[in-house]
UniProtKB/TrEMBL annotation:
Residues 452-468 have a biased composition (Low complexity). This is HAT C-terminal dimerisation domain-containing protein. The lineage of its organism: Eukaryota, Metazoa, Spiralia, Gnathifera, Rotifera. The keyword Zinc-finger applies. Residues 478-492 have a biased composition (Acidic residues). One of its GO terms (molecular function) is zinc ion binding. GO terms for cellular component: nucleus. Keywords: Metal-binding, Nucleus, Zinc, Zinc-finger.
Length: 492
């Protein structure tokens, strides 16, 4: 019993034992096997779900994020539900409640609402007038969340829909009685030619001869036109030799490279806005108005614009009165930290009449963006009502991409060669993937607060009280540690 190999194994076993002193994991469960993960997922999922249920008990106001999706390989319809809220410290928390197999009788608004309500009840939550819902702007979503909640449309979906119309529609219905022509003929011709060429190449072996893989257009992908056109222009000069003696060569000769470049440059700000409004862990709703005005300004026609760009700008431009943005002014108020609380009836007047400044030290992210919730946390003593309102409003996301990304994760799990995984197991895996780290962090924070609280209180010197105080608490703590250790092994 000697040698480097034996000593290395012994050292690893010794370190593992010291790192997981309370773990109940069996040795045979650690060794790789097709069922290694599935054997432990259920226990970890149930424990984590109970943690989230306890958190939801204390939530008074929240925002529910909802979307639905159909998986193409299995044909199963899924409904994704997310939850966002702010805690007492103005910290934004975002959870995924589940990616559920949709088993309601139909996709009618009534059945969809009943399905969502049933899943919320599992977390002791229900929609009412104080709850917000973020969804896309499809008719069934509008009808499903018309009552007993405050529905807000997804800004990214709205913006993407306008871009879709610009490249694919001949006319749009503004309402039941008014129809407007799109008039983006030049851009639509280029878009159609590129789309057909990309589809043709992707279906053939010629795709392997390119330096970059062409991207087929998808209407469900935000700003999908830019994704397709941007890659197309990168490999534009490679395509001439690739398409020689093919039916697509005639279409390729009709495409003006400069027009494709112009379209991509014009669409870039739209893509940046969509990406910014898709942040999962930051407040985004306050950015919508200023971003909207920015895009409207980008749609102003210049003398040197080509016909393609002029048509796109004309369609996407919105007729609005260009008022001065108040967002920065309202946020840049400088407040005396020693000022006492104000009369509620005077609070908004005092806030709007305060002096402005540009100092946001401590209220920003690493990339320079302002942490607006941190700002209002610092002002809650001076502006209690406004800070409370801001805390409620800024938990609302500008888009429902939290759930959209959940469906993207589903696509990574289910593929053409992997379709046997059950919908229940899929839901459990995605729940743990999206929530486990945050739940563990909150659990550690709560444990740390309890430790500090206990150490700061007066210790009772009675021998009986010392013996009876933390016995059950200690057992619960050890069980929680064991589950957490199991999760690290299975999911790391």
């Amino acid at each position: 019993m000697n040698g480097d190999g034996f000593y290395n194994v012994a050292q690893v076993l010794f370190e593992a034992g010291s790192y997981f002193p309370h773990s109940s994991i069996q040795v045979q469960h650690i060794f790789p096997h097709p069922t290694t993960i599935s054997r432990g997922v259920m226990q970890i999922y149930e424990h984590s779900k109970q943690q989230l249920i306890q958190i939801c008990k204390d939530i008074k106001s929240c925002c529910v994020v909802v979307d639905s999706w159909s998986e193409k390989y299995t044909g199963i319809n899924y409904c994704g539900i997310g939850l966002r809220f702010t805690d007492e410290n103005f910290k934004l928390l975002s959870f995924v409640l589940g990616c559920y197999a949709y088993d309601a009788p139909s996709h009618a608004a009534l059945h969809f609402r009943e399905f969502v309500d049933s899943k919320l009840q599992e977390y002791n939550s229900q929609l009412d007038s104080s709850k917000f819902v973020i969804s896309d702007n499809e008719p069934n979503m509008l009808a499903a969340f018309r009552d007993n909640c405050q529905r807000i449309g997804c800004s990214d979906h709205y913006l993407n829909k306008q871009l879709q119309h610009a490249f694919e529609s001949s006319e749009i219905h503004l309402n039941k009685n008014i129809v407007e022509n799109v008039n983006c003929t030049a851009a639509q011709n280029i878009f159609s030619l590129v789309k057909n060429i990309v589809v043709d190449i992707r279906r053939s072996h010629r795709q392997q001869q390119q330096s970059m893989k062409l991207q087929v257009y998808s209407g469900t992908r935000f700003n999908g036109a830019l994704t397709m056109l941007d890659i197309f222009r990168e490999v534009f000069y490679e395509l001439s030799a690739l398409l020689t003696n093919t039916k697509s060569m005639d279409s390729f000769n009709l495409i003006d490279k400069k027009s494709v470049d112009d379209i991509c440059c014009f669409l870039q700000p739209f893509d940046e806005v969509i990406q910014s409004l898709s942040e999962d862990h930051r407040s985004t709703l306050h950015k919508v108005i200023s971003y909207r005005q920015c895009l409207i300004n980008k749609c102003e026609i210049n003398e040197d614009d080509s016909i393609v760009i002029a048509e796109l700008k004309t369609f996407l431009d919105v007729v609005v009165s260009k008022s001065k943005s108040l967002l920065v002014q309202c946020f840049d108020v400088q407040v005396d930290s020693t000022m006492e609380a104000i009369n509620p009836h005077q609070e908004i007047d005092v806030y709007l009449n305060s002096e402005f400044c540009c100092n946001h030290d401590g209220n920003g992210f690493e990339d320079g963006d302002i942490d607006i919730l941190s700002y209002w946390r610092e002002k809650q003593n001076q502006f209690s009502i406004l800070s409370f309102i801001a805390k409620q409003i800024h938990m609302i996301p500008a888009s429902n991409t939290t759930v959209e990304r959940l469906f993207s994760s589903t696509k990574n799990v289910i593929s053409e060669k992997r379709t046997n995984i059950g919908s229940q197991k899929l839901n459990q895996l995605l729940f743990l993937q999206k929530n486990l780290n945050l739940l563990k962090q909150l659990s550690n924070d709560s444990r740390r607060k309890r430790t500090i609280s206990m150490s700061s209180t007066t210790t009772i010197s009675s021998e009986d009280s010392t013996c009876t105080m933390p016995k059950q608490s200690k057992l619960d703590h050890e069980e929680s540690e064991s589950i957490s250790d199991d999760a690290e092994i299975f999911l790391d």
